[in-house]
């Protein structure tokens, strides 16, 4: 798949897969996750939904290597590579804690991760170009000189999404990325994520409580409540009686085609 942004290199295509096999997590003596098995293929967007405390964010933290677990996580690289590697992962948190009165700019945030020079002294041209290309991929190039504390919730999440693309990961993890964002901002974020999935052949695993909003962009929805209750195409999952009871309102059938 050809990239529209020269500095952001997409993955070759189609044969990579992250295999989650029988994952279990126990925290403080409580079983938080039990027997979680999923295959996350490149180019696909999988959304995790479920009640509060179901273990959704715990699963992301486990994939990031932050929590001990039973079971196994395997990454099968693109076709033709004979060995298994740890996937490059990108991560967008639900909230970013920082001093909103700090003078740090969007460019500073990129340069701090790309350069050994103090960002207050120097922005290398290569870093500036990388930041512009990543921001352009999420329709946010105009934000490059803005202070982080001046950004709206939706703008900040798009900047964090751009940061997660440097470098382009094999697996992108999104932990309730539209929480607290207004409806236009949520719709733009979903459209952007869907574009990135196709453009860069990403495996994306997204946690969300916005079941109605994610049906149009998800290839697959997984209803999680400590273990996988059901998983499948959006229309199939939202027809599940337990899903309907959990979310407490009637849902329209998901559209059959994605943007």
What would you say this structure looks like, in words?
The structure is a single chain. The chain has 259 residues and is of the alpha/beta class. The protein has helices at residues 56-63, 106-114, 125-137, 153-163, 183-200, 211-214, 234-238, 241-247, and strands at 17-27, 30-41, 45-49, 70-76, 89-92, 171-175, 203-207, 220-225, 227-232. The strands form two sheets. A six-stranded mixed beta sheet has the order 5-6-7-3-8-9. A three-stranded antiparallel beta sheet has the order 2-1-4, with helices on one face. Strand 8 and strand 9 (227-232) form a beta hairpin. The longest helix is centred in the last third of the chain and has 18 residues, at 183-200. The radius of gyration is 19 Å and the shape is globular. The two termini are 18 Å apart.
CATH class: Alpha Beta
Give Rg in angstroms. 19 Å
CATH superfamily: P-loop containing nucleotide triphosphate hydrolases
Shape type: globular
CATH hierarchy: architecture: 3-Layer(aba) Sandwich
Helices and strands: which structural class? Answer: alpha/beta
The helical percent reads 25-40%
Within the largest sheet, what's the order of strands? 5-6-7-3-8-9
Count all strands and give the number: 9
Query: In whole angstroms, how far apart are the ends?
Result: 18 Å
Binned strand content: 15-25%
Sheet bearing the most strands, described? 6 strands, mixed
Please provide a brief summary of the model.
The protein has 259 residues and is an alpha/beta fold. The protein has helices at residues 56-63, 106-114, 125-137, 153-163, 183-200, 211-214, 234-238, 241-247; strands at residues 17-27, 30-41, 45-49, 70-76, 89-92, 171-175, 203-207, 220-225, 227-232.
